[in-house]
Amino acid sequence: MLRVRLRPVGGFERRCLILLSVVAALSCRGASGRLAIVGDRKVTIENLSAFVSSQTGRSLSDVSPELAGALFERFLDEEVVLAANPSPGDHDLTPTARSARVRDLASALCPPSPQPSSSQVDAYLAAHPEFASGGERIKLRQLVLPDQSTARSARDRSRSGEDFVRLSRELSRAPNAADGGMLGWVERGQLPPEFEAAVFGLSEGEVSEPVPSNAGWHVFQAMERRNPGSGPDPALRDRARVQLAAAQADATQRSCLMVLASRVGVRVDCAGVSFPCRNPFEVTP
Asked: Which domains, from first to last, does the chain contain?
């Protein structure tokens, strides 16, 4: 008969066993899929996967790590707004209804910034001399929609004759949605390549195909066009005012979200994920 002698576990072996038990405990915690805690709600990898699918029409594993990281931060933005004014059933809404609920709450919790003053517009023009150039340019409105299906529906409704401004007020999540989503005049080279490809082939009044970005799905309407060499932008100050107002609205909303996040509490813990992961509400020194 084979006899096995068991010897006492020494100090080194004991330390190894303790280390292994800690690693196992961490693995078990990671297996729960928790990415963050916002207020008293746990954000899981399943929540993020559903959000990515609703925004892009693709699974989390099929999008780039950079896009997954950006969408994770946007999902946390929405969670902060919902946690700041919780209501039963908010997290049972469809992705489209949930985004609409977040937009309504954000409008109430984060009042818009005032319109830029004349002196602010003057300073902005002085810092951006490209506004006075005479290249090819196009005057645009935009819708920013939460997902691809909503963007396609908005495109079809606009192409069938519905008023673009009314669609903006009803559906868009752009900071200036209530004003019709006006972007103003833009020149070639000022937009991301995927936006340029979508808009610079449009005729006046035409509506683009939906274009994805980290902010959502964009649908553009071309209002006017000017060819190269047609002289300075006739609406130079209006164009600068619109872009400055959009930048100020983004900054105001971000500042408000930071205040709300500090109030409800946000903890991010997503070690081991395959996308860039950070807490967008942490203030770095």
From this structure: 32-110+250-279 (no CATH), 134-231 (3.10.50.40)
